Every structure is written in C-alpha cells, then in structure tokens.
Fold:
Amino acid sequence: MRYVSLHRLPHLNNVALGPSMQSPPSRLQFDKYLRRVEQRRREKHPPEARHGAESSASAASSKKPSSRSFGRLFIEFLGLLRGHRGSVAIALVTLSIATLLKLIPPATTKLAVDYVLLDKPLPASVAAWLPAEASQFALLLWIAGVALCVSFASMAMHLCGRWYATRAVNRVQVSLRKRVFEHTVRLPLHKVYRLKTGGATSVLREDTGGAAELIFSMIYNPWRAIVQLVGSLLVLTWVDWRMMVGGLILVPIVYLTHRTWINRIRPLYRDVRTQRQGIDGFTTEAFGGIRVVRAFARQRSEANRFVRGNDLLIRQQLHVWWWARIIDVVWDTLVPLASTGLLVYGGWRILQGQMTLGDLMMFLFYLAMLLDPLATLATSATSFQNNLAGLDRILDLLAEPREMPARPDAARWNRTT
Structure:
C-alpha cells in the first residue's frame, strides 16, 4: 500500500492535526486584497508574489518580484523570439503592404461621386488611362474594378502575413514551454514545492501560451494600427490639414488612457494569474493526498477552501473587468463625438464651396480608418496586459537561480547505444 506523507500537505497539517482553521469568506479576503492593492499603489511597490489560494500569510514572507516597465518587457520578449524573428519580420512586411493597399479603395469614392455621379470633368492624369469616349457607366465600372482588385490583393497579403504570425506564435509556445520546464525542474526543491504541481502546470500552460500570444497583441496588431494611422493622416493632410489636426487631437487621449489606466491594470491581471495558479496547485495537492483528506474527514473543509479560492478569483476578475471597461466607455463616447464634429465641419466647408461632396465622402472613410487604429491601440492595450503579466511571471521564474548549476568545466557523460 502506498502512503502519503503529511508533510507534503502543509495546509492539512494546520487543519487536520491542529485546531479547526476555517478560511475566511471570500468577501473578507477580497476586502483585504483591495487594501493591499491600494497600499501597493501608494507605495509604488510591485505586486506581491502570492503562492496558493490563501496567501495572506505567505505573501508577507515571500520575495517580491522586480518591477518591470513596458520597455523592459518588450526587450525581454524580443529576446525570447530568437530563432523566430524571420517569420515575424515577414508577417510585418506583408501586413504593411496589405494595410497600405487597403488605403486605396476609399480614394475611389471621390472619383465615383465627383466624376460619375456629379458628372464633373476628369483630371488629365486620370483621363489619360481611359478610352477617348468613355461613358459614365464605363468609368464607374473601371473605378469599381480597380477597387475590387486592390481589395483582393490586400486580403491575400494579409492572409499570408497572418499565417506567418500564427506559425511563429505556436513555435514560440513550444520553445518557451520547453525552456521554462527545463529551468523549473532544476530549481531548488523548496522553490519547486512553492510552485506546487498544479501551479507549475498553470505556468507552463497559461503563462507561456499567453506570452507567445504577445506576437499578435503587442507586435502584429499594433503595427497594423500604426501603419494605418500614419497612412490615414497623410491622406487627411492632402484633403484638408485642418481635419488632420482635428484627428490628431485624439492621439494624446490614447497616451493619457495608457498612462492613467494601463499601469494600474497589469498588476491586477498578475494577481488574477497568481490566484489561479494557487488554486490549481491546491487542487492537485488535495487529490494527491486524498487518503489523508479522507482519514481526517476533511472533505468538506477542502471543498470550502477550494470554493472560497474560486470566489476570490471571480471577484478579482470582475474588479479588473470594470477597470478595463472604463477605457472602452471613453472611446465609445469619443469616437461618435469626433465623427459628428468633423462631419459638421466638412458639411460647412461644402456649403462654402471649399470642398466637394466627393472630398467629404472620402474624408469620412479615412476618418473611420483613422479612428479605428486609435481605438484598437487603446482597447487592445487592456487585453494584452493580461499576457504581459504572464510574461512578467515567466521572467521571474527564469530569473530564479538553479540548484547546483553545472560548471563550464564539468565532465559530461555521453550515452551510446
């Protein structure tokens, strides 16, 4: 018969062998967590390393991880992409071409409105590409054909780039999981036990997977937004520089939202991941020592501990959800206001005879293409903070010194078959 030692289950030592120790309700734990977050924000301390579903006692004695800025995390992530940077570069090049091609079809709306619907004379540069006596319908077909071909070309380039980016994500996940696993199994035993079996599984599965997804959330999607933003601003400058200035007003708002909210959201996401890791570790240990649990009739206590840990996790997730939704509400308010204001300004310019209807239609298309990447940069920042928190935890784990590291002059055994 296989026996399980009690020292493998420290929480059972406190509960089964000592006085009855009930974990506090999740509401009290959450209130204590909010006070700790507020104190951490005032003191500008990094998030505490919490190990376990109930870590108020262990958090005070555990070592706090180093605080990493976004720039440092970005540099560290580029280092993890070693061997996969070629695929990422190809994805960015094809994405840039696809985004620039996407800027061409909105310009055809000006040609269709001004020179087909309003029957204005074509510019000499455009008329040179058409037959001498082309009808209005033929011109409309020519414009539609150009827009359709460019759209198909942009779609093909975008699909090609997304394939390279997706392949890079999966390869980085495999290599990062291999690196984290090989490093974790060589840590000192007390640090391995602090992770717990389920906690290590959570790090290897969720944190490494989310860190690899940063290829999309931190590089691919922001790059598309930047290229589209710069291209839209150049076109708006050509149409009316005053409208371009109005669009640029929203850029500082993106910076302010990042500065005000994002730095506060990432530690909260890290706390959520740490709480989930503790729950996974506790669950694995409880079932691994099921004989001890049943011997001391602690099934209900262990179930209550598990449920309260999950209740605290849900409260933390809802708390960070509300912080993230504040940015969405701000942008859901600003985008309609900006669009309406610029529409009124463009209509006034048309009534003054300083713009054509085609210019206004083209401008509205490019305005939407200008506001879309700005909103993408703002809203995606709240989502990839979760993955950044996972990357931060991985870097903390990789920074842990190994137990008895191999010396450069150590002898190696070669296995021959």
Q: What stands out?
A: Confidence is low (pLDDT under 50) at residues 1-21, 45-65. The chain is about 80% helix and 0% strand. The radius of gyration is 29 Å. The CA atoms of residues 8 and 410 lie 33 Å apart.
